[in-house]
Structures are given as structure tokens and as C-alpha cells.
Amino acid sequence: MKEKFNQAGGSPAAVYRTAIYLRLSQEDGDKQESDSISNQRKLLEDYIRGRSEFRFVGEYVDDGYSGSNFERPAWKRLYRDLESGLVNCIIVKDLSRFGRNYIEVGRYLEMTFPALGVRLIALNDSFDTASERRSGDFLTVPMKNLINDYYCREISRKVSIQLSAMRKRGECVSSIVPYGYKKNPGDRSKLIIDCETAPTVRQIFDWKLEGYGNRTIASRLNESGVLSPYEYRAANGGKAGFNFKKYDKALWAAGSVYSILQNECYTGTMVQGKRRKLSYRSGETVLLPKDEWTRVPGTHEAIVERNQFEQVQEIMRREIKTSGGECAATLSGFLFCGVCSRQMTLKSTYHGDKKYRYYVCPDCERCGRHSNRISEKKAIAEILKTIRSMSAAAAETEKLAFLPEDSAEVKALDKELSSLDEELKRCLRLKNRLFDDYSAGILSREEYMDYSRLYSEKIEQAKSRSEAVSEERARLISEISDGGCIRTFRKYANITELNRTTMSELIDKVFVKSGHMEVKFRNEAAIRARKEAAKHESGIEAAL
Asked: Could you tell me the pTM of the whole model?
């Protein structure tokens, strides 16, 4: 039942069913002592005591919840009681305790509460909806709400800047750390290896390199009795979250294995800032593009080597579903049709008691069912032969002197950098002229703003691309100079068996056309540069 107010004196026609609402969050900063829950409670209880118009129903407390939105558990419970009529009067210390979002606060004060017949009293603001119109607070209250909202926005902005600075320094700002690590007791912003769980992480990566699927890896861990990340955190008194939990007892699942395998943190690189809040008023977040993530290498000890991590990413990129708990076939995901470039499919057939496996293009009508297929046995033999040939050539080319800057690949990157530099200078020059044209009346204000925005975007694009090309150039020169790709091939000089680990380390793609194969190796640019050196210095023919 809605309560009515006496229009003559503004006093209630009946006793109010009254609740006190208490709220406190980190955004209140140095005001936490004066705004503490206990101090708020004492103030409100003293106010109610001795006033016969209030019948105390109960208190609703949101401790640790922001006032920027109304997604608070105690408030939601209170609002349900308001709708049901159990409560029709709310008393708070001040309007900022009720909320800091001036739009939402205004909606409650101007629309929702009058419709429900609810009275709101904010003691320190001398605000009472029962006498609002006569006191002239209809002007001051919106201003107070704006100030509260502005305060919340500024606090959010300052916290965001501080967290961003910490992320850029490589400090861990999350309360939940990746499985396999724990926070350093001496410096909570740093990670150290958790000796209990790090071996499990290494085992997961090893199994993946052997070709096991995520679901199979999860089953193996569950069968071995290894606690899932959720259960391990819970058992050690940490904040577990709900990322990995689906049942009463959280088990390892394909998703939890995948989350570990794709986490670059295990290489010693701190990766943060993957998500951003839509607004300081909202708890919702959006996933940011990878190039906007904050990555700081070398912030902590690695659990897996960088090259092992990259191999696993390559395997997952061409992931092949397996059945019956088996590993993926050695060549699955690596063979492509030389006609249409589609990934080839592994098939099986029987002749008597013998089983034969072969790869075929799924687009049989276009590429020819019989002309574009190859047996698994023949493909493996040809790839092994090509690897041994490349390894023999690597042994010779490693001895040759060669300037990486003279390679065709590096020169191509230098040319692109020069072109980007010219584009950047041109856009800066044109942007600087815009104001002169605007001042001379050649451009209108709208044209000036549009062109300024356009050139700013072009400048940022040129800078971003230039940084990416510079990184690629540095990586390529390092590979050529160091000769790491050559040494990688040399260790396979006497290879007789092929597995998925070797395939992911050496080979990018293998194209098949009419039974013939063309092998494309990883780090092909660096290998080509060494091949040029070999031809130039001693005429060695190193087939790619």
C-alpha cells in the first residue's frame, strides 16, 4: 500500500516502514573513516530513535560497492522490498551514499520514488522528498548529484591512470594470477613460480606438442587427480573466480587447458589490459584488440621456453579434431592443396587386412579426386628427405660471412620504412597548414575539423605500421645474424622419424599438386638470405 503525505503540513498520514541504507567503497578515498559503515549506522539509528513517524524495518548494507551504478546486491534487495510495500521510507547519510550517478539518482528521485510512494531522507544534505518542493531543493539536489557523479568519474579516471602506469611497468595488478605462478610475498606486484603447479603447466605444453587435443589433456589431468585451477586456488585460500568451474567440484576441461596454452605469461611476459570498462558507471567490459594489450617482456621467470610457446600457438592455429582420445596425425593441418590452397583431409581405406591412409583435397570436383591426393607414407618420406637436404646445406652456409642488411628481404623492409617516413612527413606538413587555411577563410570550421581528424588518423596509421615494420626488420636481422634457424636445421641432419613437434618447429605449409610436394619452411626469409650468401660466396645450391 502506498503512503500519502498530508498536504497541509507535509507530515506523514501514517507511520513509515523505514529502512536505513549504508554504502562504502574504495572510491571514497580518505573519507572512509568518517563514512565507515559503523559511523553511518550510528548516525542513522540516532536519527530514527525517538521519532514516532518511523517504524524501523531493517538495514541494507553494500560494503565495497561503487556508487557509480545500482548493480549492488543490498540495493537490489531493498528495491524489491520497496516494490512489494514492505519498505516505503529510506534514510541515508547523504545522497552520495545513495548513489553517484546523477542520471540514475535523478530518475529515482523524480520518477520511481514518487510512483511507489517512497520517501527518501539524506541527513547531511538536509534533503527530504516529503518537503523537497517547498525547500527549493529541486535546484540544489541535481547540482549535488552532478558533483557526486563528477567525483566518481574523477576517482575512476585517476585509478585507471594509476593502473595503466603499473601495467606499463610490468607490475601485476590483478588479484588472480595465472595458474603456475603466485605473488611474491616480498612484492605483491611481482610473480614467482609456484613449484606445486608449474610442472603441470610444462606437462600440458609437452602433451600439446605431442599432438594431444585439449579434451584429452584435461581427461589425463583429471585421471591423475591433479586439482583444477579453481580447486587449487580454493584449497589454498585464494580468490578462485568462476572461469574454470562448471560443477560442484571443478574439473579440468578443454577450455581451462586452452586458456593455459594461449597465455603468453608463461614465457616471462606480463600481458595485461585485455579488457576495458565501457563506462565508470558500468561494470561491463569489452575485449580489446591484441595490439592494444599491455605487454612487458622479462618481468618474471618463464615456465616454458618462447620457442616452445610459439610452436604450441602454431599447432593450435591449425588444430585438428581427434577422436577416441588419439593424438592428431603427424601431418594433419600442415598439408594443403596446391590448386585451391584448401587444407587437405586425412582418409583411410582397407585392402584386405591392410589399412592405407592418404590425404586428399576436400574439393574433389575442382581439384580432381585422383590427381590431387598423396599417401601419408609417401608424404612423410618426402618431407624427411627435404629436411635432411636442408640440414646438409645449413652446415655449409653457416660458415659463410654475410651482411644481413644486404638481403633482399631486409632491403624490401627498408624501402617500406622509407615510404612510410615520407608519408608521415607529408601528413604532418599538410596538417600544419590546415590552421593557416582556416584562418585565411579557405576552410570552414567543419572542413578544418574533418581534415584535421583525417590527417591525425593517417599519421597514427603510418606510425603504427612503421613500428611494426621496424620490429620485423630487427627480428629478421637477428635471425640472419645469429643463424639460429640454420642451427635448428643442422640438428635434424640424421632425422629418420617425423612427429608433430618437428613439423611445428620447421615447417609452415606443404602444398600438394598431382602427387608432387612443395615444402614451405618457417623463417623462410632468413633461410633465403643464407641461401643467397651461399650462392654468392661458394656457389652452394641450397634448395628451399
From this structure: 0.51
